[in-house]
């Protein structure tokens, strides 16, 4: 199984997959060279994910791909599925789930710029007629999550600035979609900023993608041939080294640089 993200966001998906499918081995690809994906063009995101899958496929016997990134999934999943003869499972902002849950009919959606601008997301928003969807499109929050994981305290001021459009509303969303896997790592900090006046229901689709992976593996005859838990990264630098402490708890047996150029 290949699990792919631009950064640490996908580790929140991996954590849940490990919990539900403890016997499975995986290759985790952290594309830190191209992080963040959120400010890239759709063409770049598509080409980059094709490159990653092709490169890794040649080295490791992957038989299923989990795109643990809303940005890649919303922009490129359908094209990737057509291109590769492999099952590919993605993660998407759970707009339909939020529609079922909201009581005050105000939904908050926060995601990267590329996710918000994607045809997938625009189409889902357009189809929603009975609720108001308040959108925050940001590429800054994923970076804050990356820094938190490396030990930097999350700045309340920076968070307040990002969430200002909702903080200033007279009626806040009662249901918030965390439409980027990085944001799940900031759930507690986001709660503190937003849930001042009332409680908010947060949805991040991580249970949904895990369920889909589990379901797929139960139903298919697919063989999982990876024998170790492997972590790959695409850029060697000091910022990557700072991540090693956090990675310890995931118990990867191999941590290796991969050249994607
Ligand atoms: N974790 C990613 C997502 O779910 C991407 C963040 C980024 O690279 O901008 O969208």
UniProtKB/TrEMBL annotation:
It comes from the Bacteria. Its EC number is 5.1.1.3. One of its GO terms (biological process) is peptidoglycan biosynthetic process. Keywords: Cell shape, Cell wall biogenesis/degradation, Isomerase, Peptidoglycan synthesis. It catalyses: L-glutamate = D-glutamate. It is an enzyme of class 5 (isomerase). One of its GO terms (molecular function) is glutamate racemase activity. Pfam families: Asp_Glu_race. InterPro entries: Asp/Glu/hydantoin_racemase, Asp/Glu_race, Asp/Glu_racemase_AS_2, Glu_race. Substrate binds at residues 5-6, 37-38, 70-71, 181-182. Transmembrane segments: none annotated. PROSITE patterns: ASP_GLU_RACEMASE_2. Pathway: Cell wall biogenesis; peptidoglycan biosynthesis. The active site is at residues 69, 180. Belongs to the aspartate/glutamate racemases family. Provides the (R)-glutamate required for cell wall biosynthesis. NCBIfam families: glut_race. HAMAP family: Glu_racemase. This is Glutamate racemase. It comes from Buchnera aphidicola.
């Amino acid at each position: 199984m290949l699990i792919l993200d631009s950064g640490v966001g996908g580790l929140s998906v991996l954590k849940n997959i490990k919990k539900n499918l403890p016997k499975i081995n995986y290759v985790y690809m952290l594309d830190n060279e191209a992080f963040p994906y959120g400010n890239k063009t759709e063409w770049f995101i598509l080409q980059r994910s094709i490159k990653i899958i092709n490169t890794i496929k040649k080295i490791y016997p992957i038989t299923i791909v989990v795109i643990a990134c809303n940005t890649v999934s919303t922009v490129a999943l359908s094209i990737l599925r057509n291109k590769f003869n492999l099952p590919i499972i993605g993660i998407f902002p759970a707009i339909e789930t939020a529609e079922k849950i909201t009581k005050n009919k105000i939904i908050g959606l926060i995601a990267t710029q590329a996710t918000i601008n994607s045809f997938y997301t625009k189409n889902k928003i357009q189809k929603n007629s009975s609720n108001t969807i308040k959108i925050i499109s940001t590429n800054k929050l994923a970076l804050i999550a990356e820094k938190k994981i490396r030990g930097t305290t999350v700045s309340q001021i920076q968070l307040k600035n990002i969430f200002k459009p909702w903080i200033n509303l007279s009626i806040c969303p009662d249901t918030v979609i965390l439409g980027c896997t990085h944001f799940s790592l900031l759930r507690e900090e986001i709660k503190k900023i937003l849930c001042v006046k009332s409680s908010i229901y947060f949805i991040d689709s991580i249970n949904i993608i895990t369920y889909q992976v589990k379901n797929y593996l139960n139903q298919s005859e697919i063989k999982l041939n990876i024998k170790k838990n492997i972590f790959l990264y695409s850029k060697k630098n000091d910022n990557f080294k700072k991540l090693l402490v956090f990675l310890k708890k995931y118990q990867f047996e191999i941590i290796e640089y991969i050249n994607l150029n």
